[in-house]
Fold this protein.
Amino acid sequence: MIHAADIKPIEHRVSLAEREARSGHAGGVLWLTGLSGAGKSTLAFALEETLFRDGFQIAVLDGDNMRHGLNDDLGFAHADRTENIRRVGHVAALLAMLGYICVSAFISPYRADREKARQAVMRDLPPGRFHEVYVRADLATCEMRDPKGLYRKARAGQIKRFTAVDDVYEAPERPSLVIDTTKESVARSLATLTRFVTSRFAAGLGEKEPG
Amino acid sequence: MIHAADIKPIEHRVSLAEREARSGHAGGVLWLTGLSGAGKSTLAFALEETLFRDGFQIAVLDGDNMRHGLNDDLGFAHADRTENIRRVGHVAALLAMLGYICVSAFISPYRADREKARQAVMRDLPPGRFHEVYVRADLATCEMRDPKGLYRKARAGQIKRFTAVDDVYEAPERPSLVIDTTKESVARSLATLTRFVTSRFAAGLGEKEPG
């Protein structure tokens, strides 16, 4: 068999700096984590729309969408969730290297998996390009919202190992940002996120700064 | 367990048309296939550089690079090669949906795998966005070039199941384009590819057509 040692990466001739200059901002990853129903996808898609209209190159990777494509071979057992997040981390890094702001919106319940995603990004990009955002809402609130009816199914025993019902959610220890959607409206949460992204990814690029 | 039926894709609020208008050209996939040493990566990276400088949004997915990231869990057995190409097809589709021209450069020896990659792109995008390009060179030429020393190892029995040595290469039956690198120089092959991409992805976008 061919071994990994036989395979050497080839350097791209278009640098990250050139990609970022064209985007008008830095590439990087905004990693949203939180319970099902906390508002990750809602905020991610709203942020994508807002910042795209402001001239940003931004793309959402979303648990629901990814599982219909790249990750449609994976289930929800611990190993599958870990592999799900491993792959998303690498795709996010790839988008960041193209000068995109990649907003990933996954429950990503396990700390170790999120750490590996961070490392996948940090391996390929300069420091400061991966930001963990804790989209926080208490379980009662998420269960009341239950936008996909999944909590109801989990309580009825029709779904096993559902995060925060009968599987663990390991909250971030040092997130870059906390958005509390129990207390804050979508509009206000979105404004906070927009300011955060602008300050982290658009600052320092001078006159190329969008919007 | 959660089932796939519980997971519904969420519609992105930024359309493909908007992404493409910003790129100034259509999004799509140029799928290069051919033997190791045929020149896929050389042409892909040269094309990326040329068209990026001309204002295109273009990105290469390359076998060597992908295997150090997303696909670093895969070997080279038949099932692993199939999974490698399956994942690349989905990532290529994702980039195309962002209005990128994705140039994938993989041996991708099996016809059925390439067909699945095509389907992954066709599922998400309008017709005419996936083009198979056969980068053709005879085995003797590839073996003489042997840029990574892999043919030598394969002949010495140090690598098993190497494409065209002791594993099959299923040539495209109806490729959109054939580049014969045994007969044509890199410069000429690159010119052919550049014209092809421009005619397929930049035509019809009128004054938004890049440089």
The radius of gyration of chain B is 18 Å.
